Amino acid sequence: MRASLKGEMEMKIADKFEELKEKKEAALITYICAGDPDIESTKDIVYALEKGGADIIELGLPFSDPVADGPVIQAASVRAIQNGMDTDSYFKLISDLETDIPLVCMTYYNLVYAHGIKEFVSDCAKSGICGLIIPDLPVEEAGELIAESREKGVANIFMVTPNTPADRIEKVSQNTSGFIYVVPRMGVTGGKTELGESLKVQLDGIKSNKPKAVGFGISTKEQAEEAVKDGADGVIVGSALVNIVASGDNVLERIESLTRDIKSGCKKA
Hints:
The protein has helices at residues 8-22, 39-52, 71-82, 87-96, 109-115, 117-127, 143-152, 166-175, 199-204, 221-229, 239-247, 251-263, and strands at residues 27-33, 56-60, 103-106, 129-133, 155-157, 159-160, 180-182, 212-214, 234-237. The chain is α/β, with parallel strands linked by helices. A nine-stranded parallel sheet has the order 5-4-3-2-1-9-8-7-6, sandwiched between helices. Helix 10 links the parallel strand 8 (212-214) and strand 9. The longest helix has 15 residues, at 8-22.
């Protein structure tokens, strides 16, 4: 992927949401773990997601202790690490991708800190990463990362849960660029598949002009439709796709098919 001018990468996410808003669509954001099952296969999976209609792709940089992830993504992280994925291999993979879809890195703070905050953000910008999700880094402790990201034009995406108080939601909104990652229930990725009746209440309670994307547990067209009806500007699908990768069965065709099906549930009324 080509390197972009400062700020251009960050704006790719915002521009995507604006483009979809005009088309009365929510964004389909898909997650896969980089290096699962191997680097070359990851490239093909990214292209299958693109063909299926994904709007933004999260590429997980695997970590040995992924506290926000459920067993499906934990297992993917183990496979990827065993197959040699590390931070340097990750940025090489991103650089080699031939796609214009906005790419977001989801990883854990240990890896960022070990690489060096300035160098990590710089490598994101150089390789083509538009945004960063670091679930174990609270917004209150992210000052250095936010400053460096703004300097390099990389978006910072923070999470809110049903238990996030209003004053903290405001802080998240002020410091988030790209979109706000809305977690509709407590727990880890995957697991329960019901979004719950409280999603609309949660979304209405997030007073922000930033796009709101709902993740953790979405795996079907029907769930995407429900989230969009409740006010989501985007839906995030991870474990369902990672499960297909883990099966090793007709992976690319099934990835493309599921992506296309869930995207069809992203139409706004």
